[in-house]
Amino acid sequence: MEQRTTKITRSWGATVGYLIGVLCDACHNYVEGKDGMLWQTDTARIAQEPLFSSPLPAQFNFSHGCCVCSAPEAGREQIKFRTMNASSAITASTVGLTASTEISVAILHCAAHKGGARHSGTSAHTQVKFRSYPYLRAFCQLNDTVPG
Questions:
Q1: 15-29 pLDDT, tens per residue?
Q2: Three-state secondary structure call for residue 143
Q3: What is the pairing mode between strands 18-23 and 30-34?
Q4: What is the CA angle 31-54-146, rounded to 5?
Q5: How far apart are CA 84 and CA 107, in angstroms?
Q6: pLDDT tens for each residue of 104-122
Q7: 89: helix, coil or strand?
Q8: How many H helices and E strands in the chain?
Q9: Backbone dihedral region of 36: left (phi > 0), alpha (psi from -120 to 50 degrees) or beta?
Q10: In DSSP terms, which residues pair with 118 in a beta bridge?
Q11: Distance (Å, rounded) from C-alpha 17 to C-alpha 122?
Q12: Domain ranges for the chain
């Protein structure tokens, strides 16, 4: 596969090191770069940590198979995300009390993988991040979302 690169001079500090997992707002593809050069992330890329993200809709489905390698599912891993809700008014009776929202999702994994996904964001804008760029694209297509 031919790889197209673009010289960048000023963007996100790309001139000082290596970048991975940067989302292009225009095309919704991930890019990475090094030494001032930027290129589109390989569509088969599996990252060391979950970094390819999508909004998590209220109703969603996961593709069949492991969220890292697409092998048959051997189990599910619960990932939890807790956000603290700000109170709109502080009164003497509510001082020291906080409310939180917890979101829990069962992520499919094969026997060889764990930690293939995690939550991020806020309770109003929850995202799910995957290690697998192909799995992210499948999730987005299945749930009519775009990366980001």
A1: 446 677 888 888 889
A2: helix
A3: antiparallel
A4: 75
A5: 23
A6: 889 999 999 999 999 888 7
A7: coil
A8: 1, 9
A9: left
A10: 129
A11: 29
A12: 1-42, 43-143
